[in-house]
Structures are given as structure tokens and as C-alpha cells.
């Protein structure tokens, strides 16, 4: 999924379920940032393995451009971060954690993941890796959550 | 002629539904989606219903997988990963409650224990969703 669809869905779910008012900009910024920042790990692999991706392309190889932060280990680390931030600000901890979790869960459902990376390189995918299907899901998520965001902003 | 076309369409639809029914990963997707929907739930009775549904879908998916594809280590690994994700979603929703924080900590511990299970084959994983039903039911009945 694209970073934009992660941001639009993850931040909405976090903000809506935490009952955050639209004027609480710091929480909204935290939700947007934490759902987007996880995709930075792709950049590292794109640069490091640029020759591989140039030869083989991105299709069916995109999971090779994700670190252990995109797998179960990422879930655990974000959970620990949530507990630590929760000592100071529970609402902030919830927003950061949930928006990141949604991002990771979306990638887990849509892509090929290596859940037990770095200890086990077992690969799994929950849906068939068809480009057209994934693109449609992406469009669907963007349209639905854009409408929900518009509804939230109008209140 | 119309009846014939309707019959063909119905057969196609039933084939598609049967394929969806046979594919155990679909149940795992439903499990994750239910756990995300759990974040929106505030009533105790609904929370209990959601957790029971997630456990039910998990068991049903396992049965379907065993029926059509037999027991496999790959499916077990898939299931471990999906279970950990659903637990983390459920207990992150309970972050405002002290017991929720304890269970979130246990869910993180459970994730780390799953790595141990993969390496050694020894099962130390806690059934946290099932365990969390007890305090929820207690709160529903007595508080």
C-alpha cells in the first residue's frame, strides 16, 4: 500500500477512536507522523539494493525492501514505546501506537511479510499478490478514508 | 433461457463462495479486521462479543485448514503471527485501564515468547484473549 493510504487510514482510526478534537493539532500531527515514518525503512533498502531492484523490478520483491520494523518485532517495539509514552501521556501513546499498528497490519494483510524476521525468514502472504487487486484496494481505502476525514473535519 | 443463465450465475457465485470458504487465510484477515474494529467498541458486552468472535473465527479457520489442507507448520506460523497482532490491537484499545496496560505488556511478552517457540518448539504462549474475558465478564456482571 502507498504511504498516503497508510497515513489517511491509520491517522483517522487513531484520532477517531481516541476521541480527539480536530483542534488538538499535536495529536493529529503525531498520528500522521507515526503512520508515515514507518515507511522510511524502505528507503534504506531501495538505496542499498538499487541494483537488485533495477534488474528484478519492484513487483513481488517489495517485501525485500522492509526491515524487521515492518514485522512482528516492529509491533512489539511500538507496543513497548506505547507503554513508555503512556506513563507521561496516555492519549499520545494511544495515537502513536494505534496509527503505527494500523500501518503494519495493512502491510501484513496486503503484502508478503516475514513475520519472525530477523530470527526466522519464513515468508507468508494472506492474499494473492495481484497488482491490479492491490491497486484497487489502495484506491478503495483512499476514497473511503478521504470521505471519513471530510466528515470529521466538517464537525 | 433466463432461468438457465440465472442457474449458471448462481453456480459461479457458489463456486466463488466455496473457494473463499476453503481459503484459511481469509479467516485470518477477518480476525485482524475484527481486532481493528474492536478499537471502536466501548460497551463491555460488545467487547466480549468481539473477542469471542475473534476466537471463534480463529478456531473455525483452523478447522477449515485441517479439513482441506491438513495440518501444516506454515499455517501454524501464520496463525501465531495473526494471533499476536490481534492481541496487540485488543490490548492497545485498553491502554487507559491499568489492567489493559498489564495485558498489553503480556501481549508484547507473548510476541517475544513466539520467537522462543519457533526456535525450541516449546509452547509457553499465553492465551491472553481468553484470559481477558474473565475480567471483562466480571466487570460486566458485578461492576
How would you sum up this structure, described in words?
The complex is a heterodimer of chains A (155) and B (143). With 155 residues, chain A is mainly α. In chain A, 67% of the residues lie in helices and 3% in strands. By secondary structure, chain B is an all-alpha fold. Chain B has one domain. In chain B, 83% of the residues lie in helices and 0% in strands. Chain B contains six helices and no strands. The radius of gyration of chain B is 19 Å and the shape is flat. In chain B, 30% of the residues are buried. The mean pLDDT of chain B is 88. The A-B interface holds A 13, 16-17, 72-73, 75-76, 79-80, 82-83, 86, 90, 93-94, 97-98, 101-102, 104-105, 108-109, 113, 115-116, 119-120, 122, 124-127 and B 25, 28-29, 32, 36, 39-40, 74, 77-78, 80-81, 84-85, 88-89, 92-93, 95-96, 101, 104-105, 107-108, 111-112, 114-115, 118-119.
What is the topological layout?
The complex is a heterodimer of chains A (155) and B (143).
Chain A: H1 3-17, H2 25-37, H3 40-48, H4 50-56, H5 72-86, H6 90-110, E1 112-113, E2 124-125, H7 131-154
Antiparallel strand pairs in A: 1-2
Chain B: H1 2-22, H2 24-37, H3 44-68, H4 73-92, H5 98-120, H6 128-142
Helix pairs in contact in B: 2-3, 2-4, 3-4, 3-6, 4-5
Amino acid at each position: 500500500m502507498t504511504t498516503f493510504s497508510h497515513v489517511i487510514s491509520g491517522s483517522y482510526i487513531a484520532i477517531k477512536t481516541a476521541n480527539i478534537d480536530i483542534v488538538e493539532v499535536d495529536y493529529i500531527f503525531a498520528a500522521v507522523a507515526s503512520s508515515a515514518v514507518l515507511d522510511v525503512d524502505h528507503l534504506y533498502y531501495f538505496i542499498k539494493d538499487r541494483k537488485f531492484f533495477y534488474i528484478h523490478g519492484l513487483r513481488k520483491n517489495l517485501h525485500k525492501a522492509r526491515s524487521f520494523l515492518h514485522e512482528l518485532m516492529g509491533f512489539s517495539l511500538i507496543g513497548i514505546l506505547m507503554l513508555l509514552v503512556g506513563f507521561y501521556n496516555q492519549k499520545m501513546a494511544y495515537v502513536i501506537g494505534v496509527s503505527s499498528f494500523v500501518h503494519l497490519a495493512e502491510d501484513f494483510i496486503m503484502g508478503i511479510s516475514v513475520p519472525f524476521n530477523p530470527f526466522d525468514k519464513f515468508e507468508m502472504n494472506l492474499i494473492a499478490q495481484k497488482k491490479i487487486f492491490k491497486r484497487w484496494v489502495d484506491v478503495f481505502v483512499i476514497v473511503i478514508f478521504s470521505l471519513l476525514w471530510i466528515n470529521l473535519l466538517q464537525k | 433461457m433466463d432461468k438457465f443463465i440465472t442457474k449458471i450465475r448462481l453456480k459461479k457465485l457458489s463456486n466463488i463462495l466455496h473457494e473463499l470458504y476453503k481459503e484459511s487465510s481469509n479467516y485470518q484477515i477477518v480476525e485482524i479486521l475484527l481486532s481493528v474494529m474492536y478499537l471502536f467498541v466501548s460497551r463491555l458486552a460488545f467487547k466480549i462479543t468481539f473477542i469471542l468472535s475473534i476466537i471463534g473465527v480463529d478456531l473455525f479457520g483452523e478447522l477449515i485448514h485441517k479439513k482441506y489442507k491438513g495440518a501444516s507448520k506454515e499455517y501454524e506460523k501464520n496463525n501465531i503471527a495473526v494471533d499476536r497482532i490481534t492481541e496487540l490491537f485488543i490490548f492497545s484499545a485498553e491502554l487507559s485501564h491499568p489492567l489493559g496496560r498489564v495485558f498489553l505488556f503480556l501481549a508484547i511478552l507473548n510476541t517475544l515468547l513466539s520467537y522462543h517457540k519457533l526456535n525450541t518448539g516449546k509452547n509457553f504462549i499465553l492465551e491472553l484473549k481468553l484470559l481477558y474475558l474473565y475480567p471483562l465478564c466480571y466487570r460486566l456482571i458485578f461492576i
